[in-house]
Amino acid sequence: MGIDKEKELSIEAADLRREAEVRLQLKTNKRLQPRTDEEVQRLLQEFEIHEIELEMQNAELSLAQAELEKTLERYSDLYEFAPVGYLNLERNGAIRAVNLRGATLLGVERSSLIGRRFENFILEADRPVLTSYLSTIFTSKRKETCELTLLNQGAGPLIVQIEQIEALVDVLYPECRLAMIDITMRRRAEDALRDSEERMYRLAEMAVDAIIMMDECKSVTFCNTAAEKVFGFSAAEIIGRNFYQLCIPKRQLSPKKPGFDQFREEGTGPLIDRKTEVTARRKDGTEFPLEISLSSVKFQGKWHAIGIMRDVTEHNRLDLEIKDAREYAENIVETVREPLVVLNSELKILTANHSFYETFEVTAEETIDNFIYDVGNRQWDIPRLRVLIEKILPQDTVINGYEVEHDFPGIGRKTILLNARQIFREEIGSQIILLAMEDITDRKLAEERVKEISRQQQAILDNIPNAAWLKDKEGRYVAANGPYSKDLGMEPMDLVGKNDFDIFPPDLAEKYEKEINEVIRTGKRTSFDETRVDSKGKTLHLEKVKTPIFNDAGEAIGVIGIIYDVTASKEIEVTLRHESTHDILTGLYNRAFFDTELERLSRGRLFPLSIVMADINDLKRVNDTLGHSEGDKMIGLAARIMLEAFRSEDIVARIGGDEFAVLLPKTDRKVAEEAVERILRSPEVVNGEVTIAFGIACAEDEDHIAEALKASDERMYQDKSNRKKLQVGGSGESS
């Protein structure tokens, strides 16, 4: 269709050319007619005027062209340096043109983009979207958009919005111009907003208190599970209901400004983040007191009121009980074993219990209505007590464990632990201070003794060259020495108070817990073996000796553990065990191990059991002619060939000088024969470096093992004899 159009245009151009030539000929004929001087002069003047007109038009055209070029340059700059990516695509998605921002979004030099398929730069999952989009914009006049994910190697995946600018319809080369807008940050912000809202809803659902959200019309837009329980309605029944259908507030909701609702106390203005008590109605019609804390929040572009509510029925009941109990508690003061005094706001003693008088050897007359500092010949005028009562207590109102050490005249040096409470006493309308005292002098001495014992324990542990530690009966570390803590990469003091679950993986910690429980339960010193791989990859064999510690009553109260590195002895033991079961020359199992395994297999269920007997031919001749070292090499060669031919689970043993035996559990004779065939096809056997005679037999059960062993041995000797006859016969024929 395109070729026909070109031909048609060519024909029209040729016709136009011929008509122009005819007109030119006519003009030429007219110019050749004789003219008068006056006509010539007039024609010259017209020509000059026409020439000037052409020059003026040419100047105007030059100015217009320059202005057009400037405009084109400005628009080119706008196109090239626009913050939005522009690209022209063919119908098949090939890139025809792209601006600098578009190349940046694609992460490729612009010179390398022309002609490449746009789909190669987007996520594979989005390619069908692009195909559908291109099909739509080339067939529809509507402006279409879509979203794609670009595979930008430098900046990472980018989410872009593709918008159709225009479709450049050409019969031969149709293309479209698209705008690419990077919306990655917007998408991330939207995702973050959704995550934030999701977290908000989850937190609300997890909250113990009832939570509701109301819009500007006081309609409930959200409630959590706790609100359903409080009101007895389901969420579907609560949402959309007017707040006043659930509660009768003392303060009414009214807008502070359009779209902004808050609680407004009558005549006092708006309240924000204030608590109030309302009367709420349950689904069954019962009313109950509800404490509600209201605040305003902007959610999804609109102002909402959020109410956090708690049923205070029980709380109010408890307040009454507390009030009734207060008097009862004051009566109990007299029965408290520890010294206790009650002070008023002027620090005069209102009351004191019997223990106070007895401990500090003062009377009621010397105490009541006196300043605390004047009691007992001013023995309570203690600087640290003044700091507690005059500076600390007014700010904190509650003080626990405030330690005071002082020499009391006639009593001696005491360490007193003070617990203080500042209370507003409603019945007398003033502040009172409860001051309880605990004599911890003996306890402090005991603690010092414990610290001294701990230091002694630590010194003992530190002088043990092996890794050592001390635990209580709950498995908590009491002390550890340097080698043990260094092995764990911790300081000794960092271990104190921790248990094995704080340090080791769960499976290992559970194992250690069982070990210490066993030692505590049995009350016996116990050894435990452990294998560990150190940081250099070396396998360590450890012996952990754990010994119980008893108190005076004979009860196990802890465990002391010492770790011994027995790697060297274990390695020696493994070496000796290997040497006792293996042949030194070949590394194969020896005769003793073979007999033991044969006995073990006879009692098992690994039948059928195939037995292969083997013997090296001409070993004696090699020993006699070439020496025993060459014979040993032949034995080693035969051993290697046999070991490679059989499976790892087969027992390959050297049972004599040139004799070998193989046990193949759960194997029939055919598999054993295939293994022997592999040996006979080995290059060393084929080349004559070594020759081996074989005998194979199979025992189907334990009753036929002895028979199979004998049969395999006889067949081996028969094979050996046959080979000798072949050698003799062969020599005769060759000679």
UniProtKB/TrEMBL annotation:
Keywords tagged on the record: Coiled coil
Domain GGDEF, first and last residues per copy: 607-735
InterPro entries tied to this protein: Biofilm_reg_signaling, GGDEF_dom, Nucleotide_cyclase, PAC, PAS, PAS-assoc_C, PAS-like_dom_sf, PAS_4
Domain PAS: residue ranges: 71-141, 196-250, 453-523
Coiled-coil intervals, chain numbering: 40-78
Superkingdom of the source species: Bacteria
Region forming the signal peptide: none
Pfam family, one: PAS_9
Gene3D superfamilies tied to this protein: 3.30.70.270, PAS domain
Chain ranges of the PAC domain: 274-324, 526-578
Matches recorded under PROSITE patterns: GGDEF (PS50887), PAC (PS50113), PAS (PS50112)
Protein name: Diguanylate cyclase with PAS/PAC sensor
Organism: Desulfuromonas soudanensis
